[in-house]
Amino acid sequence: MSDETLFREVDEEVRQEQFRKLWARYGNAAIGAGVLIILGVAGMEGWRYFQLKQSEAAGDQFFAAAALADAGKTADAVKDFEAIAQTGFADLGRLRAAAELVAGNKAEDGVKLYDAIAADAGVDRTLRDIARIHAAAALADSAAFADVEARLKEFAAPGNPWRHVAREIMAGAQFRLKDYAGAGKQVQAILADPETPAALRNRAEKMSQLLLPMAPPK
Question: What is the mean pLDDT of residues 32-56?
Fold first, then answer.
């Protein structure tokens, strides 16, 4: 092995570690954004239902379970989220339960719950889409890229409101698998999109810098 080859491999490992740190620091914006998305987009739907139906008991149950989750009592929180029966808050509870399972290193169980939500025709379409995206995100660190892509390809299409986060998740999965060319295409798609949110664009620029030295030698 030549010195040049050795140095290139060492440099690649260093950049892999840099990317992992970047993903760990900012990945929650895409992968671990369950709380923000659920309490933002989905929470709005649940709150609207709460106002219309005055589901005080279900609301109290949801926020009590959320308090348990915030206190680190994951098992109790998941149990209470899944026990919510009132339509609207029940869907939010299942989403939050799945997020807690993933956060508690039970990604397989979390993905199963996300998939069940996504397949439930009785759940609001927005919440079903959120479940599909989070299932893919939970698999991004372990599954084959084909599985991640199959879950996100529809969302990554031009014009889809979820395209930015879908592309970022796929880029992370490809980087993990050392498919730097594929990751680079996703990152460039993010950067080329004029509607990419500023925070995500900033992360993509950092990813682009990490990927640049990993391009195959010409």
Answer: 51
When pLDDT is averaged across residues 106-119 and rounded to a whole number, the result is 91
* Residue 12, Cβ density class (10 Å: 0-12 exposed, 13-18 middle, ≥19 buried): middle
To the nearest 10°, report the CA torsion of 115, 120, 125, 130. Answer: -20
Q: What is the mean pLDDT of residues 92-116?
A: 87
Q: Report the alpha-carbon distance of residue 115 to residue 134 in Å, rounded.
A: 9
Residue 56, CA atoms < 13 Å, CB-side half-sphere: 0
Given CA atoms 183, 162, 134, 199 in this order, what sign does their dihedral have?
positive
pTM above 0.70, yes or no: no
- pLDDT above 80: residue 183: yes
Say how far apart CA 203 and CA 209 lie, in whole Å.
10
Q: What's the average model confidence in pLDDT over 47-60?
A: 56
List phi, psi (to 5°) of 139.
Answer: -95, -10
Distances (CA, A) of 105 to 99, 108, 199: 10, 9, 27
- Quickly count: other Cβ atoms within 10 Å of residue 143's Cβ: 20
Joined tokens for residue 106: 């039970």
Residue 123: per-residue pLDDT: 85
- 111 Cβ partners below 8 Å, 6+ apart? 98, 102, 135, 138, 139
d(CA 12, CA 161): 33
Residues whose CB falls within 8 Å of the CB of residue 116, separated by 6 or more in sequence, listed in order? 94
